[in-house]
Amino acid sequence: MPRSPSAFLDLRPFRTSRAFTKLWIGSTLAGLGGQLTIVTVMLHVFTLTGSTFAVSMVAVAGLVPMIIAGLYGGMLADAFDRRRVALAAAMITFVSTALLASLTWAGLETIGWLYLLSVLNAAANSVGMATRTAIVPRLLPTELLAAASALNGITIGVMVMVGPALAGVLVALTGYGLTYSIDVVLMLAMFLGLWSLPPLRPEGEIVRPGLASLVDGWRYLRRSANIRTQYLMDLIAMTLGQPLTLFPALGTVLLGGGAITTGALTAAVAAGTFLSSLFSGRAARYRWHGRGIARAIQVYGAAIALFGAVLLVAVCFPGADEENPHLVLIAAACVALAVSGGADNISSIYRNTMMQAAVPDAMRGRLQGVFIVVVAGGPRLGALYAGTLASITALWFPPLLGGIVVIVLITLLLRRVPRFREYDAMAPVA
To answer: Where is the Major facilitator superfamily (MFS) profile domain (predicted)?
Structure first.
């Protein structure tokens, strides 16, 4: 009798490809360092200005350059040796972070420098992300791409859970300069992972970067119903079911506990991501990825709606503050958010695998660039939706309504696109 697949994380990609293993280790360590720098810059800006608006502008300032760099980086990845493109992007990130550390040690840092170097980091990371993701299918057989995406979920979970907390501790104990310097050291692991790769020229017809390349990618996307559908599903989930912008207010005026509650809610999402990857063995072997994406996003919508329901219950028990939090309701909210993080990660495993397996190699970088635009734009639209609706109704209303609408829209979309519903990872078609 054949042995039942383990529910635990599938580690076969590590045993199959040393190159993938080195790239994963390098990406994980460098990503952790990147999270250190992102959070440290925000703390640094607040120290220099005392303005929450100035802190929020760190993310806003990098959005457009990140999108442009993601699109252009995808074109570069489809035209040149991907190893060299990824190395160049890593070098820009390394130099900008080293400059940030040097200026801080010398006491010469200014708001302008912090913004400029943060934007440069965001742009370079977009190019590197699009290129590294396009590299993975050249290092592993198709049947292991889902397992590789699950391992990427481990990376994201570690980055989001450990990075912000570690940044706060390091800044408090050692200051900004040493925290930036630790990122510089961690970035060296990325070079080790990339340097050992063989040359990786795109396979197929190569189009030079520029308008013709962008148009070529757009035409391909128009013909690719499965890829378009997964983009649309992700936008629906991230626009209507993204409550992160509400977390600071929840800790202050509804659940109590202040900043500790805000941190716990944020960590709960990352914990769900990590645990879902840790026990992704059977999910990574599921072959009907279209249905898998839809079902995972429906679970995501249900979890966000449950989170909204918990907040509605909190309204019935007023009086919570920083000293007297609603511990039971905070725990319930964290469970709902952990489920949402896990469901989003399972959806991401199938979406990444579909992108890597169904898209031709010569087109993969450009489609990854478009994917970065979706991933970057969706949560920001979600922040606008949740923040605006909460300001004119109540804090519980955007997640409750949004979660329900996500379930309904995904159900309708799955019915309208039978090709997506029948997508088979054993015979991938874009």
So the answer is: 19-421
pLDDT tens for 110-165 read 888 998 998 898 889 888 888 888 899 999 998 899 999 889 888 888 887 788 77
What is the Cα–Cα distance from 28 to 116, expressed in whole angstroms?
25
Domains defined for the chain, CATH in brackets:
12-197 (1.20.1250.20), 207-430 (1.20.1250.20)
Stretch 417-422: mean pLDDT: 92
Lowest mean pLDDT among 93-102, 268-277, 382-391: 382-391
| Gap between the Cα atoms of 100 and 82, Å rounded | 27
Lookup: tokens for 351 = 């979406």
Residue 142 has which token pair?
Answer: 């198709």
Query: Residues 323-350: pLDDT tens digits?
Result: 788 899 999 999 999 999 999 999 999 9
Is the pLDDT at 173 greater than 80, yes or no? yes
Residues 6+ apart with CB under 8 A from 33: 97, 182, 183, 184, 185, 186, 187
Q: What is the pTM of this model?
A: 0.83
Q: Work out whether the CA dihedral 118, 119, 120, 122 comes out positive or negative.
A: positive
Let me know: does 40 contact 173? Beta carbons within 8 Å: no
